[in-house]
C-alpha cells in the first residue's frame, strides 16, 4: 500500500535561506522514508499565498497548486517556528486556506480532506511548543485531518537565548526518538484510513 507525505515549512524565510524548521521537517520526512513513505517538502514563503478562506483567491494566488499536493498526500506534516509564543503568520495563513475544506464535500458528503492524517513540527528559541502544537492540532482537526497519538515533534532552546536548532552539533536523542514516533504513528493511522475510510453522510 503506497503512502505519501507532504511537509509544509512555514518559516518566514524564503529559499535559499537556512531554516531550522526545514531541518526538522527533513528529518521527519527521512524517518517516514525509512518506513517506505515517499515525501516532499514545500516552503510556503516561496509562494504567493493570498489571504482568504477559499481554495482559490484569484489572480496570482499559488495556493491552489499547494492544495492539490495536500490532497494528493496521505500525510501532512505542518512545520512552523515559534514567534512571540505563537505559530508563524505564514502558518496561520496556511490554516486559514485549509479552512476552505469545511465547505468542500465529496460525493458521499465527507470533507475532501477526510482520510488524511496530520503531524506537527515546531522549532524555536522560546517557550511555547506545546501551545503551538495544540493550536495546530485543533485547526487541522477542524479542517478534516485525523491526528495520531504523539504526532508532534519539536525542539526549543533555552528561553531568551539565540541558539537555533540548525546550529546544534547534533540533534538531541529525545528529538530523534520523538520524530521517529511521529513518523510511525502517522504511517500507521494513514494505512488504517486508506483501508477503511470514514463513513459518508447517508443523506448526501
From TrEMBL:
It comes from the Bacteria. Gene3D superfamilies: 3.40.50.360. The keyword Ribosomal protein does not apply. One of its GO terms (molecular function) is oxidoreductase activity, acting on NAD(P)H, quinone or similar compound as acceptor. Pfam families: FMN_red (PF03358). Residues 6-156 form the NADPH-dependent FMN reductase-like domain. Keywords: Flavoprotein, FMN. The keyword Flavoprotein applies. InterPro entries: Flavoprotein-like_sf, FMN_Rdtase-like_dom. This is Multimeric flavodoxin WrbA.
Amino acid at each position: 500500500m503506497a503512502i505519501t507525505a507532504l511537509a509544509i515549512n512555514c518559516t518566514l524565510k524564503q529559499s535559499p535561506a537556512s531554516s531550522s524548521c526545514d531541518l526538522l521537517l527533513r528529518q521527519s520526512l527521512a524517518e517516514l522514508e525509512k518506513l517506505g513513505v515517499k515525501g516532499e517538502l514545500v516552503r510556503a514563503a516561496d509562494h504567493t499565498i493570498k489571504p482568504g478562506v477559499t481554495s482559490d483567491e484569484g489572480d496570482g494566488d499559488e495556493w491552489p497548486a499547494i492544495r492539490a499536493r495536500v490532497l494528493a498526500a496521505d500525510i501532512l506534516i505542518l512545520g512552523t517556528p515559534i514567534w512571540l509564543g505563537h505559530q508563524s503568520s505564514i502558518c496561520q495563513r496556511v490554516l486559514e486556506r485549509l479552512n476552505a475544506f469545511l465547505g468542500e464535500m465529496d460525493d458521499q458528503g465527507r470533507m475532501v480532506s477526510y482520510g488524511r492524517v496530520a503531524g506537527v513540527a515546531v522549532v524555536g528559541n522560546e517557550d511555547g511548543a506545546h501551545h503551538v502544537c495544540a493550536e495546530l492540532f485543533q485547526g487541522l482537526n477542524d479542517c478534516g485531518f485525523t491526528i495520531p497519538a504523539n504526532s508532534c515533534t519539536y525542539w526549543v532552546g533555552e528561553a531568551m537565548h539565540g541558539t537555533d536548532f540548525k546550529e546544534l552539533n547534533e540533534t538531541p536523542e529525545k528529538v530523534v526518538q520523538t520524530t521517529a514516533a511521529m513518523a510511525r504513528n502517522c504511517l500507521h493511522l494513514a494505512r488504517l484510513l486508506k483501508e477503511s475510510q470514514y463513513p459518508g453522510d447517508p443523506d448526501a
